[in-house]
Structures are given as structure tokens and as C-alpha cells.
């Protein structure tokens, strides 16, 4: 058998990293570290592991690996730095300023190979001045470098500078391409400028620039966030004409859009059009079922996902647990919660909240409280509010008061906490406690948040608040509601 050397080790390690098997890659790397001198990790080994972590969402691990690399006396090259910058962008975008400062240290070592990645990193950190400096230092700019800067300005809501940058891009000898349009449109969507994003999408088509799959996904996000199903259908029609609707990522975006716009039927149709569903699209459909209260369908889909060999992630489990809440299946919920450990999925506070909701609705309030005390992170107001809601539902005053006390301590001026506590006292017939709670609400001047509803009429969304009569057609609306109310009463009689 031929003797293993660093080249053969690196070949296996790189293959694991490229195929997303980062833990296996790390195991090979650590084995190399303990081996003899001629198989110790070299620059290629370090870069492969760091790149594997970064590309598969292990951002903190990628950066920690880079620091370890430097500590052990191995100097990173341009490729190593380029592979870790996306991870830095993710962490810095989460307000990790320490990561940003360390990213700037990398900047001092970087060359033009990582220029575009540096521009993108600074833009994601909302550091436009630093991004502009990094851009100016790139000796040989290309379309990708320009796109990184323009996209960054759009994402930072510096919309007024976009036309100036596009003009300079052309003066530099580069024409905007589909990626330029995508970056600008994405910036508008991220800043909730959905109407303008739709307008840009129309302008893009008018300019004979063919939208790609990513463009369709961005615009569908705009439609889902603004809950405008008619616009979503128009984009869907465009996707069909371009042959994109069967694409797994466009299909997932369509499922998400239709679900958020209120049509589970259209969401299912879009899902069934996907040729080869992956976990992203499966999660989208699972979330749609959970959102619309189709618990049994959600659980059935989860079982198919497992049976087909897909590896569920935290989104899969959260949606499946929500489905269990809708059908009231405590046993299935417990099974899923325990199954997370089997798939190395660490429960987040959302998973714990879902389980507490499931137990509380089922009247297993003591079990829910015990689970809260086992939560490894700080318990938030949502979790205590969920338990309090269960106590109101089942009339558990003693535990309800505990939950209410914790909830009010976290959100002193939240009317909903006091209203729930008042409802609990009313349910239990504790009238003196009820009166005291209502006086408390009055004394601190809190008001109940008014109810809100909205309807879509073609491309317009009409919003209505309780007791609000500011709509220009209020009289017509009220008259129609009176007629409908009278009709319902007559029919009921």
C-alpha cells in the first residue's frame, strides 16, 4: 500500500470540505496534526478547512480556525483570506464589532484577489467609507468589484448614490449586468422599498436585460413581504415563461410567497412543480403548512423528509413542532424534540418556546414550567407569555401568577401581560385581584393595542384599525358592514 503523504491527506480533506462534510474534514485535519512531520497540515490543508467552514455556515468556526492558523505560525495567503471573508461579513453584520476590527487587520494583508470580497464585507458591516477605500485600492477593477460596491450602497439604503455609481461604472468601461440589477433590487427589498423594487424589475425587463433565477427570488420576497398576491402571480407567470418555476430555489420562493399571501393551495401547487425538492424547498412547504394550521399535512411531510434520507435542520424541526402544536400531538412533539439530538441540531429558544406552547395548550403546565427551567439560555418574554396563556386557558392561577410576574419584569409597560393576568383572575373568579390589576393598567396609563386588519384590492393594500375612521371611504365601508351584519343576523334567525 502506498505511503500516505500530505498531498493524499489534503485530497481527502478537500473533498470532504467541498461536499459539505466539514466535521469529517476537521477530523482528517486533526489526525494530520497528530501525525509525523511529513503529513502535518500545510497551507492547503488550513485553507480547505477554513473554506469548508465558511461555505457551510460555520462562520465562527472558520474565523477561529484562521486565528489558530496564525498562532501556529502558518501565514494565510490571498485564497485563505478570500475564503474567510464571507464568514466575517456574516458575523460583523450581526453587530460583532470585534470581528469587524479583525477583518480590517486582514485588509492590511490583502491584495487585489480579495478586493471585491473586502468591499462586500465592509458593505455588509454598514461601513461604506471603508468599502469605498477598499474599492479605490483595487488596482484592476472589474464588473464584479463594481457590483459589490453598488450592491453595498443599495443594501445600506444609500439609494440616491446608485445612479452616480452606475454612471462611474460606465465611465470605467463596464456595463451593468444582471448581477448589478440584482444587487440594486435586493437593496430596495432589504430596506422594505417593495414598490420601487417592483418598478425596477419592470425597468429591467424593458431594458432587455433578462432576469435570472436570483432576480425572480428577490422579487418574490418583495411580494411576500408586502402580501400582494396579484403581483406575485405576475412574477410567477414570468418565471413560467422563462422556465424557472421548476427550479428548486424559485419554487421555494413561490411556496413562501403564496403562503404569506394567504393561499396554501397555490403554495402546494408551486411545491409540486419542483422537479427535485431539496431541504430548502421542503422547509418552505413545511413552514407553509405550519403557518396555515395544516398540522397533519406538516407532520406527514416531515415523515417523508426523514424517509427520503434528507437531513433535517433547525427550520425543519421548528416547522414540524409547530404542526404538532396545531394538532395537539404532545407525544409526537416530544419525539421530534428528542430526535433533534440524533441529527445534531441544537434546540434554539424558538424550539423551546414551541414545546412550551404545545405542553401549555395540552394542560401540561407543570411540565412546561419544568422545561422553562431547563432552557440553557436566558428565557425571554415570549416564553413566559406562552406559559401564561396556557395558565389562562386552563385556569392555573398559582403558576399563572409566577409567569405573569416574570413577564411583567421583562416588559413593564406591555399591556398584553396585564390583560392576560386580568383574564386569568376573571376565569378563576378572583374579583379583588381582577380589580387591582385593572387599576394598575389605568394608573400607569397603558392602553390596549387596537386590532388591525387589511385587504388587498388589485395592487393596493387597505389597512383598518379598530375605531379608526380615517379611510376616505369610511362611510361606504360602515354602511356595507351594517348590511352584512343585518344579513347574517337574518340568516341566523
UniProtKB/TrEMBL annotation:
PPR repeats lie at residues 42-76, 142-176, 177-211, 278-312, 313-347. Keywords: Repeat. Gene3D superfamilies: Tetratricopeptide repeat domain (1.25.40.10). GO terms for molecular function: RNA binding. SUPFAM superfamilies: TPR-like. It comes from the Eukaryota. InterPro entries: E_motif, PPR_At4g14850-like_plant, PPR_rpt, TPR-like_helical_dom_sf. It holds the Pfam family PPR. The keyword Repeat applies. GO terms for biological process: RNA modification. PANTHER family: PENTATRICOPEPTIDE REPEAT-CONTAINING PROTEIN. NCBIfam families: PPR (TIGR00756). This is Binding. It comes from Hibiscus syriacus (Rose of Sharon).
Amino acid at each position: 500500500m502506498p505511503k500516505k503523504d500530505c498531498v493524499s491527506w489534503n485530497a481527502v480533506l478537500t473533498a470532504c470540505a467541498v461536499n459539505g462534510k466539514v466535521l469529517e474534514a476537521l477530523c482528517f485535519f486533526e489526525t494530520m496534526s497528530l501525525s509525523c512531520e511529513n503529513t502535518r497540515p500545510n497551507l492547503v490543508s488550513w485553507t480547505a478547512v477554513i473554506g469548508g467552514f465558511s461555505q457551510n455556515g460555520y462562520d465562527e468556526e472558520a474565523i477561529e480556525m484562521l486565528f489558530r492558523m496564525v498562532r501556529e505560525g502558518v501565514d494565510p495567503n490571498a485564497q485563505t483570506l478570500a475564503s474567510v471573508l464571507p464568514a466575517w461579513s456574516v458575523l460583523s453584520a450581526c453587530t460583532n464589532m470585534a470581528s469587524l476590527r479583525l477583518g480590517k487587520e486582514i485588509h492590511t494583508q490583502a491584495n487585489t484577489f480579495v478586493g471585491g470580497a473586502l468591499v462586500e464585507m465592509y458593505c455588509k458591516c454598514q461601513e461604506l467609507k471603508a468599502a469605498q477605500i477598499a474599492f479605490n485600492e483595487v488596482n484592476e477593477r472589474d464588473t464584479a468589484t463594481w457590483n459589490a460596491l453598488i450592491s453595498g450602497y443599495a443594501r445600506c439604503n444609500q439609494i440616491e448614490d446608485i445612479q452616480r455609481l452606475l454612471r462611474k461604472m460606465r465611465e470605467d468601461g463596464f456595463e451593468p449586468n444582471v448581477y448589478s440589477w440584482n444587487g440594486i433590487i435586493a437593496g430596495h427589498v432589504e430596506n422594505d422599498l417593495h414598490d420601487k423594487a417592483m418598478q425596477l424589475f419592470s425597468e429591467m425587463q424593458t431594458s432587455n436585460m433578462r432576469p435570472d433565477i436570483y432576480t425572480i427570488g428577490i422579487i418574490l420576497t418583495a411580494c411576500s413581504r408586502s402580501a400582494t398576491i396579484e403581483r406575485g402571480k405576475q412574477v410567477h407567470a414570468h418565471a413560467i415563461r422563462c422556465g424557472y418555476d421548476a427550479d428548486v430555489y424559485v419554487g421555494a420562493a413561490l411556496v413562501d410567497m403564496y403562503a404569506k399571501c394567504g393561499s396554501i393551495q397555490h403554495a402546494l401547487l408551486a411545491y409540486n412543480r419542483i422537479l427535485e425538492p431539496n431541504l430548502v424547498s421542503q422547509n418552505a412547504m413545511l413552514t407553509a403548512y405550519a403557518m396555515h394550521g395544516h398540522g397533519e399535512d406538516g407532520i406527514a411531510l416531515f415523515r417523508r423528509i426523514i424517509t427520503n434520507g434528507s437531513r433535517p435542520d433547525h427550520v425543519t424541526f421548528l416547522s414540524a413542532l409547530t404542526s404538532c402544536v396545531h394538532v395537539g400531538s404532545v407525544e409526537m412533539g416530544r419525539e421530534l424534540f428528542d430526535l433533534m439530538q440524533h441529527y445534531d441540531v441544537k434546540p434554539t429558544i424558538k424550539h423551546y418556546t414551541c414545546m412550551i406552547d404545545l405542553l401549555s395548550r395540552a394542560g401540561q403546565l407543570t411540565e412546561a414550567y419544568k422545561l422553562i427551567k431547563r432552557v440553557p439560555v436566558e428565557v425571554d418574554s415570549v416564553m413566559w407569555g406562552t406559559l401564561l396563556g396556557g395558565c389562562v386557558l386552563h385556569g392555573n392561577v398559582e403558576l399563572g401568577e409566577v409567569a405573569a410576574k416574570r413577564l411583567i419584569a421583562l416588559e413593564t409597560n406591555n399591556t398584553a401581560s396585564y390583560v392576560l393576568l386580568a383574564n386569568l383572575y376573571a376565569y378563576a373568579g378572583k374579583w379583588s385581584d381582577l380589580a387591582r390589576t385593572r387599576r394598575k393598567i389605568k394608573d400607569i396609563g397603558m392602553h390596549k393595542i387596537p386590532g388591525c386588519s387589511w385587504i388587498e384590492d388589485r395592487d393596493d393594500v387597505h389597512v383598518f384599525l379598530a375605531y379608526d375612521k380615517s379611510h376616505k371611504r369610511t362611510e361606504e365601508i360602515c354602511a356595507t358592514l351594517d348590511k352584512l351584519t343585518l344579513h347574517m343576523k337574518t340568516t341566523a334567525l
